[in-house]
Design goal:
It is built from 12 helices and 8 strands. The protein is of the alpha/beta class. It has a single domain, classed as 3-Layer(aba) Sandwich (Rossmann fold), CATH 3.40.50.1110. It has a 5-stranded parallel sheet. A 3-stranded antiparallel sheet has the order 4-5-6, with no helix packed on it. Helix 5 packs antiparallel against helix 6 and helix 5 packs parallel to helix 7. The longest helix is centred in the C-terminal third of the chain and has 21 residues.
Length: 267
């Protein structure tokens, strides 16, 4: 996330801005889009919920000035409070009023402690200006434009069991997502919603996925790629994320869908 926000000045006015969780920054590879003449920037972050997406939009949308926006809407992220993602933003992004408000409003003592320490490191020690993040770290490679490629992994192998769960959307996350859509609509930026591919056993565990999709569709055009692409486990390196081979296939399919959406006037 540190490298990604520092990278923003190098990728202004992209054709597409991606927002969402690690399913966004590990699924949409800007290099693949570039081969089709499409410029992109990925502002995804780990466990980014709509609450953090709203803050990032307020901070950066007018600086990035994207032509289109893709919201990655992984169902589980509408169920959690977003403490991990807020901590990530405080630790790795410039701390401004919106970030402070987010931490204080959460009422979480860990986040407030992180905020105090972050303010000290940024404004008293000037550590963020001095810090340089490694491009390759712990098996991950940061690619300019926001994408993270997994270069070291053990292939995902499912035991075949399905853990059933019902998606329970938190009202505050749905309100935040509505605010995100409003921010984008006010700037008349075309947008779509996407659910990236998941292992079959994980996706089938969402008992009310059709209900979730219907709710999301009320906010805009939704494409659930789990109903289009049917990957086996070899395309994933864990229970959530695609291997580079999977990313290549997914992004190629996504680009084809974009052509169709443009023809229909939906994007």
């Amino acid at each position: 996330m540190f490298s990604r926000t520092k990278d923003i000045p190098n990728h202004k006015n992209p054709d597409i801005l991606f927002l969402g969780s690690s399913h966004a920054y590990r699924s949409f590879d800007g290099r693949i889009f570039e081969r089709s003449g499409i410029t992109t920037f990925n502002l995804g972050s780990s466990n980014q919920t709509p609450i953090q997406t709203e803050v990032l939009l307020k901070k950066y949308i007018d600086e990035i000035k994207p032509k289109h926006i893709v919201f990655e809407v992984y169902p589980t992220l509408f169920e959690i409070d977003g403490v991990e993602s807020t901590s990530d933003l405080i630790s790795n992004d410039h701390i401004d009023f919106e970030t402070c408000k987010l931490a204080v409003k959460s009422g979480n003592i860990k986040l407030i402690n992180t905020l105090i320490y972050g303010l000290y490191m940024e404004y008293c020690r000037d550590e963020r200006e001095k810090f340089v993040e490694e491009t390759v770290n712990c098996g991950d490679k940061y690619v300019s434009g926001g994408y993270v490629e997994r270069i070291e992994y053990t292939p995902f192998v499912s035991d075949g069991s399905i853990e059933h769960t019902k998606i329970q959307i938190l009202p505050k996350q749905l309100r935040a997502f509505g605010n995100c859509v409003r921010i984008v609509k006010e700037r008349q930026i075309p947008y779509i919603l996407v659910i990236a591919p998941l292992p079959k056993t994980i996706y089938k565990g969402f008992d009310n996925i059709d209900e979730f999709n219907q709710t999301m569709s009320s906010y805009g055009k939704l494409i659930d790629f789990n109903k289009i692409l049917h990957f086996d486990d070899s395309c994933f390196y864990d229970a959530d994320h695609l291997t580079q081979k999977g990313v290549e296939t997914f992004d190629s399919c996504f680009i084809e869908c974009l052509d169709s959406l443009k023809t229909q006037g939906d994007f």
